[in-house]
Protein 1
Amino acid sequence: MGNWLVCFDDNLVPQNNCLVYSFGIDYDFRFADAMAAIGCTVYSFDPSMLDTADHKRGDRVFFKRIGISDNDDDYFVPSVDEYDEQRPAVNGWPKRRLQTILDLLGHRKVRTTVTCTDL
């Protein structure tokens, strides 16, 4: 929503080799690109981007078409609102628990610290 600039406050700027997860990007990779530019590896997630397959966007930016949730589900159907009407979940959207995502990406043993958000 544009609030991600807090990540660049002097006392919050991530250090090189940081790992960033960004959820619900809605085709907007500006946050991911900015984090990658300061040396972070970024994984962007959004299950509603139905026309976008998992891919490597750049040297340090990756995209996964899954969402985050409190359970693992391949057929999540969101409540219908304006946003969802534009991206109908005909077969459902895949969503995963954070621990499942960490396992999927091999990051389970990576030290994690949350310092900023793009929500």
Protein 2
Amino acid sequence: MLIRSVRSFARSFSRKNHNQVGIIGVPFDKGQRKGGVELAPDTLKQAGLINELTTLGLDVKDYGNVEYEVSDVSVDNMSQLGHVSGCTKKLSETAQRVFEDGRNVLTIGGDHSIAKKNVAILWIDAHADLNTNKTSESGNVHGMPVALLTSELADYWPYLPGMDWQQPMLSIRNVAYIGLRSVDKYERLVIEKFGITAFGMEDVERYGIHDVIHMALRRIDPDNNKSLHVSFDIDSLDPLEAPSTGTPVRGGLSLREGIHAMEELHRTQRLNAMDLVEVNPTIGDKKDVDLTISAAFHIIQAGFGYTRRGLKLPEGITDMPLQTFR
């Protein structure tokens, strides 16, 4: 879910402690029609997510799951808008609390309808999520968040009751897609019309994930001074890596590519917020669910500092006594 508080995110960037993380659970499934994705926050926590992050030396605070009131609003071809507007407003308020506490934010969805000024966003996803209520074939809001976020597309929307608090302050020039392979005709038109930075799977295959990440950063953050936000849809990974998700598309990122992308973004020291969305523990058998949860853990850990080369010793320790190896 990526409709957050732009002002609080940018304001907090200069005073972040990168060892402090706040987790927000968003058990939300109203942006699409497949139930089960709302179970993901608790499922990931019960599987040991917080412990996995604390072993990295992080100070982790769980801000609980978002609870909200349903707004009595509706707009043509925007399913469950009352739920979406209520949930995103509450999420924005909770995210602001986390930022004001000086913590980086990890948002666990939920579907991708939950989703800032000097901010750059990397949208790692099989889908572009660029539809409006006029172009969407399904009316599912999880296919609309980028179009809702960006100022250049504001004129393509009708008045959205219940969403007055959310202003599209983000420029589409500050968004980069990685891993696209299922893009609607209208979405492709918008990408080409506005010159949006978009790397599909054919680009990943041509250049490799390492170069794609850095090409994307050079486009959306040429001066290396923006706060970075990653919205990672688990369906960006190939279904063989993460089968328990609602809209799988074959031919996606390998888990190794996903991990490397997050490692590189962590190394910038400017990654201040991350969404992990669309894990659905009701899809597939236990093996499928375990595989998907494991993949999600690897992606999150890489974003928050785990390196496959091994963790560094605590500060002040420069040598190991010989008896350690005996």
Protein 3
Amino acid sequence: MVEKLDMGDIVGVNDLKENKQLWKELLAEFVGTFVLLFLGLFSCIGGSVEQISFAFGLAVASMAQAVGHISGCHINPAITLGFLIVGEISILKGLFFIIMQCLGAVAGAGVVYLSLLDTLMGNNLGITSPAANLHVGQAILIETLITFVLVIVVKAVSDSDRIDIKGSAPLAIGLSITAGHICAVPLTGASMNPARSFGPAVVQNSWDNHWVYWIGPNIGGILAGLLYRFCFKQSSPE
């Protein structure tokens, strides 16, 4: 018998009516993204590629350990979209997650900016932009690929039907972010996260090629979500 689709579940009306913990999940997304920007952007001021890479990777790993049990610790619109596109999160809940992620990013970037207001001396505060010799199409491709790696790792370690996972899921996610940053910081700034780019752009009113960091990561998130759901997802044991 074919199971009838419940539009209330798909759209998310039932989430709003029945999920009494939704406010906690939204707060977790805000706090997680705030901490990611707070720790990550400080590393961008005079930090080496390695320092920046580990700061962002360890920040995500720490937050995944802290609030992953509450909201899943997406703290990234591309990850939320990767879950949304295959129906693993409702439309309204996904939209609210993305809104809270962006607000958390702006708050985190704002705190860092205020902390360093008199010491920036013309340096931008972690604004992501393609390298001068890179075409925007190439930047989109790079952001798509590194975000694809991140989201497929997230999907794999959060697969409830897997019984072989023995390591740390937060560490695996954090290391995938570190790897993406090490290879792409000199090329695109290695956003891997539209909210990560959105926060500093709002605070410093800098929007040059900002759209690249919504298009690339979100394409990567969608592709990873579809590939994992329809090709790699483990089947439930009989």
